[in-house]
């Protein structure tokens, strides 16, 4: 069976979605640059990253399918991956938007910094497991072994948790069985080495104390042995130094294993749960005292999107008898319901992400605004939104030349650019500084509502010079009805968004410091 027959069969089964299905599958695999890419972020963010990454390629296929056969369009879209720089840069940007691998590494850092206490239910199991290799938890009370024992118990508790996940045959553990086996091998070797080093260092210190007639708890007297110049004292000092070196080397090896174990446990929690909060609760069941997850931005943006959709629906119902939609009526109504909330979602997510993780999106040390970021982030939003706008252009005006409609509708991209610019300006920490909360909210509303109104007038002015098919909606509307039907709802929508939303976005985006450089072991991290 040839590939053309496969495509034809898929188109028969799935309608016209057989070709897009093959394109989506190809770029699904291109998105996975790490082993277990999905486990480096939460599931909603991963799906968002996949959808954003594949959307321009699917749009390209959709355009080519009108001129070429499905098989030829598929081959051209697949070969587009060979274009230098852009596809891989786009993949990196989408992975960054999805939090890959920042989410897992940040959670690993939070685990490393959080207090840890072995659960009472796990302590008997750990005692039995460790006693088999000759390690008793109550042994080795010397000061030097305290940090060693704390690390060893944390590592053992983590391995016990991972073993339980493997026994439950969780999908993450089955997919990463080789990494788990490697961690288990390193842990087994570390167990025997720990017992050997602690016993040897304990015997060395015990012999020094006994020979020097030093009380076991008199460490100051033990340290004073280094000031004596006899041959015996020098030998004792050399033995003490060797014991300390063995303990230090053991601690470094434990830290290396613990670093990889924490990352593996964080990935297992992210892969097994839908949200970051539930992943943290799962890790808290092991014994970590993690701070509760911040509310985040996803639920907040969804509420804003629901409000925007409801506002657009009410506007359509109120103006249906006054305003005549150009082109296909149903496509025009769907365009109104989808594009406005989508512009809000894209801009809020972009600005929230950049402001939290990159210094160039925040004021500098002298308090000056990041003018470059404020003016450019809207361009990124407009580029992302352009394919969506082109799809609605084709659906709303199927009987007109597609290229001509798309080119004439380009000025409409001023809305995603303007929304992004206003949002990036208003979310700066210094905006309306030293004003009351109510005053800041009122000014946010006035700026956002006024900005939306100004963009509407700018588009109207451009329409007088370059005819835009979508703006045929205002033709035949009297001036006072235009004010009542378009200007006032636009200002009201912007004012409500600015008054009720921007302040929360400004506070949420200021909770996280600039991202730190990350160190990870590629082999044990599964890269």
UniProtKB/TrEMBL annotation:
- Transmembrane intervals: 6-29, 45-64, 300-320, 332-354, 366-390, 410-427, 447-466, 486-505
Question: Is-annotated flag, keyword Transmembrane?
Answer: yes
Question: What keywords is this UniProt entry annotated with?
Answer: Membrane, Transmembrane, Transmembrane helix
Domain of life, per lineage: Bacteria
User: What is this protein's name?
Assistant: Uncharacterized protein
**Which organism does this record belong to?**
Bradyrhizobium commune
